[in-house]
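Exercise 3.2. Students should predict the tertiary structure of the chain below and write it as structure tokens, then compare their answer with the key that follows.

Predict this chain's 3D structure.
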Amino acid sequence: MCFDARQHPQAQRIYHTGMRLARETGTSLTTRHATANLVASTAYQAAWLGHHNDAAALLDIAARTPDLPSAAAAVIADRRVYAAGRRNDPDAVLRFRDEALGHLGSPDERTPWWATWLTKDSVDAATGRAYLACDQPTRAVPFLRSRVEATGPDYPRDHLHAMLDLADTVHQCGDGDQARELLDQAEGLIGTVSSQRMVHRFDTLSSAVAAA
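Answer key:
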């Protein structure tokens, strides 16, 4: 929630507190797996902020956690997709995408509750965002369009996020009309989603499209 509110130092402290508490409460595999998820979440924020070496190191640590359930390994690989895009490594984007889909395709009935959100559509979204971060918007379009189609009114935050991603991408591809259409639709969702990060992105995109 703090990350979504663009309160990055507070979010970082919460992640670190969670990891410290996990170390203090025990060394069971379940605790280690949950800690790996916290480490991967911290890495996602680091990648967002441009701290690429920190993100890569944290994700390596998370991936080395013993006996990870397939779904947990998929979540970590999904985080690596986005981090690869942020550091402008398109080859790694595809490699980690394949890794995430491979884990999702081999379920082992040990899925922790915090990993149930990840689906192929979610990996598509991460892949599209990664290509967008790599300044390859044309490659991003089919992945992000698929994500928009897969989300709906039951999940307004996910739908808004997907629409903003696609609006950003088609704008960078030079299709201002479609970008404006997507932003018009996104405007109807802004008031239903409590996310300063989304509001800031909507405002920034709207200004960029209007100025084009």
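Discussion points: The chain has a mean pLDDT of 86. The CA atoms of residues 9 and 38 lie 15 Å apart.
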